[in-house]
Design brief:
Layout lengths: L3 H16 L1 H21 L5 H25 L4 E3 L11 E4 L12 E4 L3 E10 L2 E6 L6 E6 L4 E6 L4 E6 L10 E4 L9 E10 L6 E7 L8 E5 L1
Antiparallel strand pairs: 1-12, 2-5, 3-4, 3-12, 4-5, 6-7, 6-9, 7-8, 8-11, 9-10, 10-11
Length: about 220
């Protein structure tokens, strides 16, 4: 009698599977479809992936706009390309009298490196005479000791009238000290000093603080 119980239990289990088989297989199918839908949404073509890509593009666009605003601020002016490229005496700017520019306005790279002075102004264009113009000259001082000298423009910037007993180290900064420019604008750095032929003063060669061929933006001090 006891040996019949396992057989009876097995029969009951089979009956339950047979009777409830439809529901079981429906459940299994439903679970399978849910899993497929889950992985479908994780695929590269899902809405989530597309939205992430859109956000990445928006982020890149935002960074580009911020870069432009930083480089081309309201005080920054574009320098036009000019021919011939070896003409360092003058540069043209995309700003003029319509924006308040006047003849004699000081032009710098950044806020501290002297580029030159506005020579000619049109409504939307300005011509600037740079420190490389042969006629350019201004009073300057050299290094931490503030040694007085006269800067002369040209393809090679030079300093004249340096006192013979002045202590000047190579790489000393040369900065403006004349009344026609804001005090302390950097012009360049000392390359070497030498005795002025036939005189008591010394002269020096100066490495400029900028190069015209790489100049893209300047500041006009109105």
């Amino acid at each position: 009698m006891r040996g019949r119980y396992p057989i009876i239990g097995l029969i009951l289990i089979l009956v339950i599977f047979i009777v409830g088989g439809g529901n079981f297989f429906e459940f299994k199918l439903s679970a399978s479809q849910s899993i497929n839908n889950f992985f479908k949404h994780l695929s590269p073509y899902s809405d989530l992936r597309i939205r992430i890509s859109e956000l990445e593009r928006e982020n890149e666009d935002l960074k580009a706009r911020l870069f432009i605003e930083e480089v081309l601020s309201e005080s920054s002016v574009i320098v036009y390309s000019s021919q011939p490229f070896n003409n360092r005496s003058e540069i043209a700017l995309n700003i003029g009298s319509d924006s308040g520019v006047s003849e004699g306005d000081v032009v710098t790279q950044g806020n501290n490196i002297l580029v030159g002075r506005v020579k000619t102004v049109r409504p939307q264009l300005s011509i600037v005479t740079t420190i490389f113009d042969p006629s350019f000259e201004t009073a300057v001082r050299i290094g931490a000791g503030s040694v007085d000298a006269l800067l002369r423009g040209g393809n090679q910037l030079t300093l004249d009238l340096i006192p013979p007993d002045a202590i000047i180290e190579s790489d000393s900064i040369v900065f403006t000290a004349g009344m026609e420019f804001p005090y302390g604008l950097e012009v360049g750095r000392i390359i070497e000093t030498r005795r002025d032929e036939g005189g008591v003063f010394r002269t020096a060669s100066v490495e400029p603080g900028f190069e015209v061929k790489t100049l893209r933006n300047v500041v006009v001090h109105l």
